[in-house]
Design brief:
728 residues; alpha+beta; Aldehyde Oxidoreductase, domain 4; 7-stranded mixed β-sheet; 18 helices; 27% helix
């Protein structure tokens, strides 16, 4: 999405008196300066009287880097070192801290944190710089054009002083209508390989405050007894066994009957008391299917006429052309349910203050959701509800549900008490594995026709699976003409030039609760597209890289040019075609979240006795890499996340109940699973795009293509260990 906002329109505002300089956003999105006395403004950058500069970070930090990236933008424009700027998380206020790509909604997701903040935070920093410079120029009686700020020191000729000397005067000045943004040639921090994360030290020494670390005076721990299958309702309970547990307080059926809240003095007591609780459930509306039934429904849909003709193609004519092709490649794929499996289990803490406000302490990915829900639960106006965002130990999408599930649980568990004691809701990992939200199951059926020259003449693609967006508050803008774009992204908008493509989609009944998962639909569409491209190249007798480049040959198409760019770079860096003896290589390239990523996986061994992943080489074009160190870490994490899941993981159901319970039977990537990862960033002058998710989509198909090159085994159903491939 493109945001068209002029700098003049964006930077309108007026300054107010005060000893603290705040440069932030008004409710109309314009920047303005104010003192702490002005409640009208909620800033992005704050400079205290002592010169301490603080970036107000509107995106929550779950490891992906906004607590470093957004301060970098402000520090760059003001003229600071990274050790001269602090950060704090913004309060919940969608009128001020909204995600510019989401509309009037505050949230972190879709790899949009840097993309939507790039100009906003640079302009805030630039406005603060010019106000400080103008204050110094007035004080020193010099022309403002002769004044600079370097490493927090204001300079003009032989005069110099720290910025703290001019904070009070600067807060009296008008905000510049069009502050000058630094030219990229002036950047000292943006793109600097030496800049490291702002939060590494506190995470290493234990000072970092995650949501799980919150411990309020006199708080109770609440854990929820949930039905084994999603959709069951609590009718009644017997807590006679729970009363035998030291520290048990009481229990209550949640107002929505989705479970029974068990309250205790500590987490262990809550766990033991919950285990001892006997609950009568109404399971009449609960999920009852087995995994094989869900799979059968999806496969049947693939063999039927699709509900939606996504690209309005003449599917019958394309099918006929494929039937008459010189060579036909056909493959059916199945992708199971997957859990998010973040390291920090879900949790949040809720309290009521002396003045009657409700405060939620949470690693909140989308604070607008719980904020709105709490207005209904507590029957309070928005201004009486506060959300304090904490660090989160991972998410991969799990902390951003359309119904704010765990925050609503906490609210319901709190509202039925007398509110005299804070309530900390704690999920175990087993809770989230068995009662959480999952990447939906999907199937793909693809037929590709090649002519005698090995050129694609037709591509018939059927997709069936469980819509994430339908039936949620996001349906109105995420579903068009009945098509949930997240189901077919990466196919419908593929940069490849593919003649005669027909794309059909059928929604199948949702299993338990489905949700976006790191890279959303690209998790299955990239795998399908890139393994099929390899199979087509093989059938055509052409090199997989050359075959892909032939379908990215339009030099005037920016998408094709950038996708071809990462493909060429990764092939060069990986030594494509020159794998050592006993090894094989597989390649994949994909565009997602505005970024382009290509990967080569190099493997050894064999599927029967064990495959070893020797090296993964990645090339990424994400526009300007604000923090290259963070970009590399995100690519590495995305690669590990994608490969780890396709190797071993799936969520299966028995009579609606999830079979897996924790890491022993839902095993994440191990440190020894990948011997080495090399990441190469394409230099770019384009605005930044996503990095949190684009590393994941090409990783799995690159692995699959490497295994195919090694042994001829084409893995079309996942996980791999259940379908003919073992790993060391």
């Amino acid at each position: 999405m493109t945001i068209n906002t002029s700098r003049r329109g964006f930077l309108k505002g007026a300054a107010a008196a005060g000893a603290v300089l705040l440069v932030g956003a008004r409710t109309d999105g314009a920047l303005a300066a104010a003192s702490t006395d002005s409640a009208q403004f909620n800033p992005f950058v704050k400079i205290d009287a002592d010169g301490t500069v603080t970036a107000i970070v509107k995106h929550f930090e779950k490891g992906q880097g906004p607590a470093t990236g957004l301060p970098t933008l402000i520090a760059e424009e003001i003229g600071l070192r990274m050790d001269q700027i602090e950060y704090e998380f913004a309060p919940s206020d969608p009128q001020v801290y909204n995600n510019l790509l989401f509309g009037p909604f505050q949230g972190t997701g879709g790899s949009t944190a840097m993309a939507n903040s790039w100009m906003q935070y640079r302009q805030a920093g630039a406005a603060a710089r010019e106000m400080l410079i103008n204050a110094a120029a007035q004080d020193w009686g010099v022309d403002a054009s002769s004044v600079t700020i370097e490493e927090g020191i204001v300079k003009a000729g032989d005069k110099s002083a720290p910025i703290s000397e001019f904070v009070a005067a600067a807060s009296q000045l008008e905000v510049p209508a069009e502050p000058r943004l630094k030219d990229p040639a002036e950047f000292r921090l943006i793109g600097n390989e030496a800049v490291r994360r702002k939060d590494s030290a506190i995470k290493g020494n234990g000072q970092a405050m995650y949501a799980m670390d919150v411990h309020l005076p006199n708080q109770m721990i609440a854990m929820i007894k949930r039905p084994e299958a999603k959709g069951g309702l609590a009718v009644s309970f017997d807590d006679s066994g729970s009363k035998e547990v030291k520290g048990y307080i009481n229990a209550a059926v949640l107002p929505n009957q989705a479970g029974v809240a068990v309250y205790a003095e500590n987490t262990w007591a809550a766990m033991q008391a919950r285990d001892a609780l006997e609950v009568e459930w109404d399971m009449s509306a609960a999920e009852t299917r087995h995994s094989d039934q869900i799979k059968a429904e999806i496969m049947a849909a693939l063999d039927s006429e699709p509900t939606y003709n996504v690209n309005k193609a003449d599917a019958a004519a394309i099918a006929a052309a494929i039937d008459g092709a010189d060579k036909v490649i056909e493959k059916t794929f199945y992708f199971p349910l997957l859990a998010h499996a973040a390291m920090e289990p879900l949790n949040c803490t809720i309290e009521q203050t002396a003045d009657g406000n409700i405060v939620l302490h949470d690693g909140s990915q989308m604070p607008t959701g719980p904020h709105m829900a709490y207005q209904q639960i507590f029957e309070m106006p928005a201004e009486k509800i506060q959300i304090k965002t904490m660090l989160a130990g991972g998410s991969f999408g799990r902390r951003a549900t359309p119904d704010a599930d765990y925050q609503v649980e906490a609210g319901l568990a709190f509202v039925v008490t007398d509110r005299s004691r804070p309530v900390k809701l704690v999920w175990t990992r087993e809770d989230d594995m068995r009662s959480g939200y999952y990447r939906p199951a999907f199937g793909h059926k693809v037929r590709v026709g090649l002519d005698a020259g090995g050129n694609i003449i037709g591509w018939h693609h059927q997709v069936a699976g469980q819509s994430i967006m339908k039936g949620t508050a996001f349906e109105s803008f995420a579903v068009h003409d009945g098509v949930d774009h997240s189901s077919i992204e990466g196919i419908a908008d593929s940069p490849y030039t593919i003649p005669g493509m027909a794309l059909g989609l059928t929604d199948t009944p949702k299993a338990t609760s489905v949700l976006w998962w790191r890279s959303v639909g690209h998790t299955h569409t990239a795998y399908t597209m890139e393994t099929m491209m390899d199979l087509a190249a093989q059938a055509a007798g052409r090199d997989p890289v050359e075959f892909r480049l032939a379908h990215l040959a339009d030099a005037g198409d920016v998408d094709q040019k950038r996708k071809a760019g990462v493909l060429k770079l990764v092939a060069e860096k990986a030594g494509w075609g020159n794998a050592p003896a006993g090894r094989a290589q597989g390649i994949a390239v994909h565009k997602s979240f505005g970024s382009y990523a290509a990967q080569v996986v190099e493997v050894s061994g064999d599927p029967e006795n064990g495959v070893r992943i020797e090296r993964v080489t990645c090339a990424v074009d994400c526009g300007i890499a604000v923090n290259p160190d963070v970009v590399r870490a995100q690519m590495e994490g995305g690669i590990g996340y994608g490969i780890g899941h396709v190797m071993r993981d799936q969520i299966t159901l028995t009579s609606g109940a999830v079979d897996q319970f924790n890491f022993p039977d839902y095993e994440p990537l191990r440190i020894g699973d990948i011997a080495a990862i090399d990441v190469h960033i394409v230099p770019s002058a384009e605005a930044p795009t996503g990095v949190g998710e684009p590393g994941t989509p090409p990783s799995a198909p690159a692995l699959a293509n490497a295994i195919s090159a090694l042994s001829g085994v084409h893995v079309a159903e996942l996980p791999m260990v259940e379908n003919g491939v073992n790993f060391f």
